[in-house]
Amino acid sequence: MDDQSTPGRVIVEDERTIRRATTAATLGNIAEWYDFGIYSYLAAVALNHVFFPDAGDWSSVFTLGTFAAAFLARPFGGVILGPLGDRIGRTKVLSATVLLMAIATLTLGLIPGYGTIGIAAPLIVLFIRMLQGFSAGGEYTGALTLVAEYAPDRRRGFFGSWLEFGTLVGYTLGAGICATLITALSKEDLLSWGWRIPFMLALPIGIVGIYLRIRLEETPAFRQLMERSPAMATMSLRGVFRILVTRYRSAALIAGGLVVAWNVTNYVLTNYIPTYLTGTLPDHGHSGVSEAMSTTLQVAVMVAMLCVVVFLGRLSDRIGRKPILATGSLSLILLGLPSTWLLQKGFTGQIAGLAIMGFTLVCFASVTPSTLPALFPAFIRYGSLAIIFNLFVSAFAGTAPTVIGVAVTTTGNLDWPGYYLIGAGVIGIISTFFLKEPAGAPMTGDAPLASSADLPSPRLSESGVPLENPPSPRHSP
Length: 477
Fold this sequence. Notes:
Elements: E1 10-13, H1 15-51, H2 59-88, H3 90-108, H4 114-117, H5 120-150, H6 156-184, H7 187-192, H8 197-200, H9 202-214, H10 220-228, H11 237-247, H12 249-283, H13 291-319, H14 322-343, H15 346-371, H16 378-397, H17 400-411, H18 416-434, E2 449-451, E3 475-476
Parallel strand pairs: 1-2
Antiparallel strand pairs: 1-3
Helix pairs in contact: 1-2, 1-3, 1-5, 1-6, 1-9, 1-12, 2-3, 2-5, 2-16, 2-17, 3-5, 3-9, 5-6, 5-16, 6-13, 6-15, 11-12, 12-13, 12-15, 12-16, 12-17, 12-18, 13-15, 14-15, 14-18
């Protein structure tokens, strides 16, 4: 099979099926990232007191360390679940990832604190966080693959942006629930039982995601792959690595660079900055904010991003992905340190600093979901994305909050978040420069894909009978 070739026919998928697939992926993603995100929002407020009460100034670092532990497991999830998705199908694996994440998160909410079972409590947290990381290793890249393989070529940016819309909703939902509990409950009640509520809510949210995904059929690209070359479904993990290294090395490096730029920005904003505002700044003589206000500001940034992420995804279908990626990268380079300085200048500055970080993040979030899947052919797409995404996130992005926390604690220099953002921007602009514009074109090795909504309506006679037959909703010559 020549994975670079493009079959001669145009595949036409029913518009309702495309939207149903996008909805299933998005709602499943809401469940997954609600589960993954609530830990960070409760880290500085409650979890460090519940699981690391005797750690003193290092309690927040230890709590962030258990957050980072999930990223040690993500590559294992990517290596196992990604290639499995290329063999047995996208929807089966994605149903399993949501189920595993929901169970792990529910269990996390049931663990007794350090005062009850001692050192066993943080060790159990560490194990569950690694289970969550394993699940996340197959979730997001599978959802990227699913949506990209259903989306018509001319609107892949638009449909792909809905996936990140779901991620933002998941984070916002988790942050909103945490903010409500922090505001409504006393400190004693929050530490006693209130922190468990967001974790308990993971089960019903996860059930909705599982239900929607198991009812979804496989993508057009995967169905074509099974028709043209079913032997590809038996490719080993070693085979995936060999093809990546020998034939898609440049694509892998470009994808890895975009993943680093995107996710360093993401985890600095969503996972380190809450601790920075509530603990680090006050400890160094600067004006911080309360836990409730920090979470409220995070929610406000996420809501603002929700308002523009789909618009930018649609815009990328018109002007291309590269201009938007370049804007985000240059903003990190030029505004990474100024945004950090603003966080140190009181409440007004903190609003401005968070707004700048949110803007740079949404530039990546809106178009990267439609950019990454286009770099690889269908028979290694899920596996390649899972391996690359999780290796680069785990090595450079997910560890960023912990590394920054240690650097600030040991050196006393509050500018480390800005240094990290500048580095991410440099990597992003280099990767964008070498990226071949994917907007509007079929993905690597795939047939051109259109939606039934993109076809002209048939002309009707006076009696309402079509004068010409429209193309098949699945295949057209």
